[in-house]
Amino acid sequence: MEVLIFVLNDPRDLEEIMVEFTNIGISGSTIIDTVGMANILSSCEDASMFSSLQLLLNKGRSSNKTVFTVLKKERIEQALEIINKVTGGLNGPGNGIAFTIPVNRVFGGSFQQN
């Protein structure tokens, strides 16, 4: 098992990703509102150059969505394909980031289905 964590810079893509996840049998994710470092620094007087950086990377948005999904290793690529399809690719500037972390033990939840 692994936890797939991805930061989605455009929250408008979230619903489509969740629907696509459901279509392939991924039925559980936890979603939290998050704010990136560039956004915090943009309001800091000592870091005024970050204001422009934040606007460029986040296209004027002040928050992100961070999604946590526990999956079997063989499901990770399917999930990443969906994320890349909907966002236009995480390699594009300001679209987001994804990574996985190995999971040793899970208690509760419906992860067995994923």
From TrEMBL:
Q: Which domain of life is it from?
A: Bacteria
Database matches in SUPFAM superfamilies: GlnB-like
What InterPro entries does this protein's entry cite?
N-reg_PII-like_a/b
Record's protein name: Nitrogen regulatory protein P-II
